[in-house]
Design a protein that fits this description.
mainly beta; 4-stranded antiparallel sheet; 2 helices; disordered N terminus
Amino acid sequence: MAPFRTLLCLVPIALMAACSMQEEVDIDLPGHTPVTLVECYLEPGQPARALATKSLGYFDDLEAAAENGLQISLHSGGRSINLVNRLVVDSVRRVSYNYYSEDTISYQEGVSWEMIVWNNEKEIARGTASFLPRPVFRKIDYALDAEGKVSLELEVEDNPATEDFYRVMLHLEGSPPWGHFDGLWTDANAAGGVLKITTGHQVEMFGDRLFVSVYRLDKNHYEFIESLKKAYDANYNPFAQPANLESNLVGESTGVFTAISLTRDTLQIRR
């Protein structure tokens, strides 16, 4: 019993020592200079929309993040679209935008667009984007594990002469907002003009239909998504190094301007 009695005696002493070492420390945080972030995704069949926000200081109110009062325009082949500073919510995709136009975007492979952002009379950002070829499925199937979780098994045609990037998003009918899969791939492991993608059993069953969206990304969009994930993780980890967002915009603002090239399909899940 001696070791047990010794342990009881040591615990209060250790606690007293720890308490005596606690001191209040005042830290002067440097001033924060806001940086404008513009995200504009040209999605076929959808209205032209953009989200403009600004970086905040650590203790700033999140409601102040919206960057309003900008002038955002899109240009392609003599066509111009001016976005209005207006809040819209896409209830299907559960995302919000604060710049909007009723003009819809059409998919045309290889067609280039340009975005210009002004703040009063000063240009603060400019970017270009082109529609890439849509992904072509060679095979699309699924597998169920013993717990009923779904894994996608996909084969996509891939051009060996180019460096390609892909984003795969899965969503099950009836699943909550967090009940989906979102992953990135490169074609580094493609062989014979085919890239094989397996998501792993990470999607829980909620309904009987699996909605599959496969995006072909340009390198800038791929790197932006990767950096966005790193920045998100760093925000919630006090020991992580700060992560900077990759940007394909020219000017004092940061962000991404890209054209969405995707193929969608729906799989009926049989249990």
